[in-house]
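INPUT
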Amino acid sequence: MTDTRELLKNAFIDAQREMRIIEPHTFSGEFEKKMAFLIKGQKGVLKLINTVGKRIAILVLALIVIATSTVFGVEAIRTPVIKAIQEFFVNVKQELSGTMAGNVAHLFPEEVVELRAISYTSSTPKTQVINDQNRIKEFTDLLITTEWLVPPDKSQETERTYLWEFCLVDTNNKVVSIKTCSIGRRGIVIISSENTEHLYTISRDSYRSIISFTGERYYLHKSSAEKPKAQYSMSIKNKILSGLNAEEQDFVKKKLWNIHYRMENFLLTYVTRLKDPDSEVWDFALYGGYFSNESVYNPNGFSEVLTDINELILTVKDKTTVETLKKISKDLNIAFEGHDIGMIFISHEYVHDLDYFAADYPKYCSTPPPDWAGVEVYFGRLKQIYGETN
Amino acid sequence: MLLILSALPQNANESDKNKLEQLYVKYRNMLFCYALRIMKNREDAEDVLHTAFIKIAKNIRNVEDTESRETASYLIMILKSTAYDFIKGNKRKEEVSIENIGDIAEIDKNIEKLAQHMVYEKIVLAIRNIPSPYNETLYLHYVRDFTVAKTAKLLDRKVSTVKMQLVRGKKLLLEALSEVQYD
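OUTPUT
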C-alpha cells in the first residue's frame, strides 16, 4: 500500500470517531430481549458444526472449494464454509415475537433447520422435506401473519381428522408439530411438542395459505381481464338464446346458473383435498359417497353438473355455444379421469363468463352465490369463444 | 483430510461465537450515542442499533480484533449506514448510470496528490464532511479494500448503487479536501 493510501486509510478510521463523550444508556427491556436472542442465535449458528449432517455438508463444500480454487490457504477454504453456515437456521420463536402471532411464539423452536410438510389426504401420507432456509422463512412469515385464537369450546375439536401437518425440526432434532384442518369458515390448529398440545383457530384465509404452502394454490375468481362492454355482452346473450322461445330461454338461463353455482360450491369445498391427484376423495367426487377419512358426505357428486350440461347442449340452438358446452363437458370428464383439478378450474371460467356476462346478463344475484367476490370478475373467455362480434 | 479438518474453523468459531457478545458489551453505549444523534429519539435509535448488530452478526468474520480502534470505526460506519437506510426508508432512487470511468483515475490521482501535502487533521475533517451513504462506501474502499460486490453485500445495496456511490464519493472527497486545504 502506498504511503498516501495508508494515510487515507487511517484518516477514514479516525474520521468515524467524532464523539468524545459517550454517555451510558439504559436500554429498554424489548431491546435487551432482541439483542439476547441475536447473540444466542449467533452462538447457536456454530453449534451446527457439531451435528453430523452439517459436518458432512461442510466437508463436501470444503472439498469443492479445494478442487476448484487455484490458490488456497486457510482463508480460501474457511470463508465459503463459514458463509454456508452463517444463515442456515430460522429462529421461528424470535420471528413470531412481537408480531400478531406473538401469543404462540413461545411454542416454537429457535433454531429451525428443517420443515416437514405432511399430507394425509391420500391413503398413504406424503411428506415433503424442506431444508432451504429461505423457504422455511417464507413459512414462518405465514405463521407471523396468522391470528391465533383460543376456541371457546375445545372438546369438540379433539375428534377431528387433521389432514395436514407441518413439523419444525430444530438443531437438537426436537420437533414442534402444527396439525390443521378446517371447520366451517375457520381453520383448527393443534401445535404440539413433546407432551404438550395447544389448540387454536385461525382464519380460513390463513388456513388455506398454510396448507397451500407446499403445493399450488388455486383461486376461484382471480382475473385481471377487463369486463366486456354492455353492448358486447348483450350481443353474445342474443346469440346464445337465439332461436329459443321464452320458456326455453328461461330454462337455459336457470340451468346455466345452477351449473355455475354447483361448480363453484364443489371447487370451494373440495379443492384442498382434490389438489392431490392421489387423494381418496377423487374416488367419490364424481358419483358421490361417504368419505371414510372424514365426516364429509357428498350425496350426488359432480355427475349432476355433467348431466345439466348435456341438457343444455340439447336445448341451445346456437352452434358456437353448443360446441363450447361440449368442450366443457369433455374437459370435465378428462379432469375427473386424470384427477386434474386445474382443468376443472378452467372449465369453471367458461361457465362463469357464459353465466354472468352473457346468457343472464346483466346478472343480479337474487340468491347468494358461493363467492360474492366473483360477481365482478371476468375471465375473458367470451372473446375466445365468440370473437369480437357486434 | 487432515488439512481439511484443520482448516475447518472449529477453534476460530469458538472465538467468533463470543465475538458478537464482546462487541455488544464493549460498544453498545458508544454506538447508541451515534444512533441517537442521527435519529433524534431513543426508540428509533434502539431499532437502528439492533439492525446494525444484525448486520455485524451476519458479517462477523469482518471483525478480527474486538479491541482495535479500526474495529470501533468499522462498527460506527455500519451504524451510520444503517441509520441512513432507516431515514431513507430504503426508497432511495436506484441510480444505474455512472460517470465515465476515465474520470475516476484522474480523481484518484488528484486525491492522492492533495492528501500527500495536507495536515492530517484536515484530511480527517474533510472526510467527516462527506455525507452518508458515500462516507461508508469510501470507508470500506480505503480501509478494508472491499470489492464493490462485498460492499454491496455488507451494506445491503445493489452493486450498481455501490459503484455509483464510490465514484460520487471520491468526487465529494476531492471537493472536501480542496475546501479544507486552505482553511
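end of record. The first helix of chain B runs from residue 2 to 7.
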